[in-house]
Amino acid sequence: MTDLMSGDAGSPRAAPARDFDGLYKALLQAHPRDALQLLCGARVEGREVVLDGPTEHPRQRSRQCDKVFLVERNDGMPVDVYHVEVQVKRTVDFEERMVSYWADLALRYRRASHRIHQVVLWPMGGGYPGRFTRDRARLDYRSINVPGDLDPATLLASPLAVQVLEAMRRRGMNDVLEQTESGREIARKNREQGLEQGREQGRELGIEEGYVNAMRDLLQATYGDIDDLDALAQRLAHSDNRGNIARIVAGATLAELRD
Q1: Is the separation of the CB atoms in 28 and 67 below 8 Å?
Q2: For residues 202 and 210, is the Cβ–Cβ distance under 8 A?
Q3: Helix (H, G, I), strand (E, B) or coil at 173
Q4: What is the pTM of this model?
């Protein structure tokens, strides 16, 4: 997953950094539990996760945190406040801004009932080490360089892998998926899942209809929501079902399948 998330910085086809920035923020918003646990190392098992609102003061909009989550405990312990920043490259004032974010959070969430955790995700790598000192002040936060600090096997085995695949497709980042081994692995797992669902449908609906449904699921998992999805699934399933499945798994293009 690491190469999928970071892309190939030297490739002319790599997605712009802002696409990765938006991708992470979208995943955090849509799937906060999985994202916090797998990307940020947060402990959220069996606990409610709430996405909090903007944290900026009225005339300080430039100081708004990316995402803030409240994770409540049931044992009377303080609520965990997770502040997550997505930063694609270093800036000279970034660590000072982290101090400012912490101060805003500390003013908003009382010390006796909240614990503040700050996490920075660096999709392109090269992040600050996570410890800032100046004068007599010090701030420690968790700094995660995605290309090196995340475990690909854990991410590929998680529900978040499919969500990453779909989010990248929706953002027009298929070229990044095609460039990376992890992207191809996620696609393969997604195809297998689609095939298994199709087999189950086949047992329930009858062999012929099951073939069509399995082909449709496979096409959708591989190429997304294409305009002629139903018609193409019908044609491929009825003409040479096994052969066409093999072609798709081998990486055939839509143009080749439509010929």
Answers
A1: yes
A2: yes
A3: coil
A4: 0.61
CA distance readout (Å), 105 to 38, 82, 110, 117: 23, 10, 9, 10
Closest CA to 156 of 189, 112, 114, 180: 189
Average pLDDT rounded to a whole number, residues 196-225: 65
End-to-end CA distance of the chain: 33
Spatial distance between the Cα atoms of 116 and 112, rounded to a whole number of angstroms: 11
Enclosing H/E stretch for 80 = strand 79-86
63: Cβ–Cβ under 8 A, 6 or more apart, which residues?
56, 57, 97, 100, 101, 104
Q: Which residues pair with 82 in a beta bridge?
A: 69, 117
Q: Tell me if 146 sits within 8 A of 119, measured CB to CB.
A: no
CA distances from 70 to 24, 43, 108 (A): 18, 12, 12
The answer to whether residues 120 and 128 touch, using CB atoms and an 8 Å cutoff, is yes
- What is the C-alpha separation between 16 and 9, in angstroms, rounded? 9
Distances (CA, A) of 13 to 7, 145, 166, 167, 186: 9, 22, 19, 18, 20
Residue among 237, 243, 196, 238 at smallest CA distance from 216? 237
Helix axes 181-205 and 229-249, enclosed angle (nearest 10): 120
Q: What angle do CA 147, 148, 152 make, to 5 degrees?
A: 80
Residue 99 tokens read as 């101090």
pLDDT digits (tens, 9 = 90+) for 131-169: 999 999 999 999 998 867 877 666 656 667 666 666 666
Beta-bridged to residue 132, according to DSSP, are 139
CA 193, CA 43: separation in Å to the nearest integer?
28
